[in-house]
Amino acid sequence: MSAAPPVSVCLPVYNGERYLTETLLSVRAQTFGDLEIVLSDNASTDATAEICREHAAADPRIRYVRHEMNRGGLWNFNEAIRLARGETVKLAAADDVLRPRFLEVCVAALDEGGPQVVLAYPRTQIIDGEGTITEDLHDEGLRGDRATPHERIAEVLRAQAAHLVFGLYRTDVLRTTRGLRPTIGNDVVVLTEMACRGRFALVPEQLFLQRRHATQFSAQGARQVQFHAPGKNVRFDFPHARLAGELWSAVTSSRLRAEESVRSLAAVTTNWVLPRWRGVAGDVRRAVTGR
């Protein structure tokens, strides 16, 4: 086996034929070329396998793994991370687009920041199903480099900065977390755990194009539960309450000093749980009424 590359781009996919080619071409066109692309196919039933094999044949940096059974999107993300060999990991969705310098500048940000910087991310723009830019995220002031975990947690949660999950991580640090959890909002959970472990670095260039379209699971309400954990009973899953518990657990599982743990738990409560109490109330209503 060849030496491990500096970067692994982990791209889990299930029935992603519509945008997968565009996404793969944007990864393959990165100016930082010393990478591997881990394609983890969750038993797709459309043309995804054919697209993956075509790109793997054209680019030796691609490792294509096809699973015989669909175990859900959550499992597939965690499996792709497990398969990664790089010193750093970039999580990728099968419908987003990277501008060519994404990896180059994020690798540089991690190198310049040293071990205390555990995640680097560029600024983000939103594109629609046709690739048209529809929004500039106001993330130029979103700095996760505060001195303490509770300050970093407060900033990320207050800004609802879930898109940072698609940044570039130090692999060894990411693997000390519990991974993506079986709940909606698992992106902010893993970001909270990473904030407990070190600082984040913002790259001021707009290099990430995050696609939002009607057919993605994050736009489909309660169906997100089954995407993350197939077979779950949506009515009785209490997803918002579970998310609150996972965020608190992100802190308590991180072995912070007692004083910092208390402050970080308070940051989760005041910046996420309390402002979203209606979601928990909705969980209860759905369990009682079925709606």
TrEMBL record:
Superkingdom per UniProt: Bacteria
InterPro entries: Glyco_trans_2-like, Nucleotide-diphossugar_trans
Glycosyltransferase 2-like domain residues: 8-121
Pfam families (alphabetical): Glycos_transf_2 (PF00535)
PANTHER family to which the protein is assigned, alphabetical: GLYCOSYL TRANSFERASE, GLYCOSYLTRANSFERASE
Name of the protein in its database record: Glycosyltransferase family 2 protein
Species whose genome carries this gene: Cellulosimicrobium arenosum
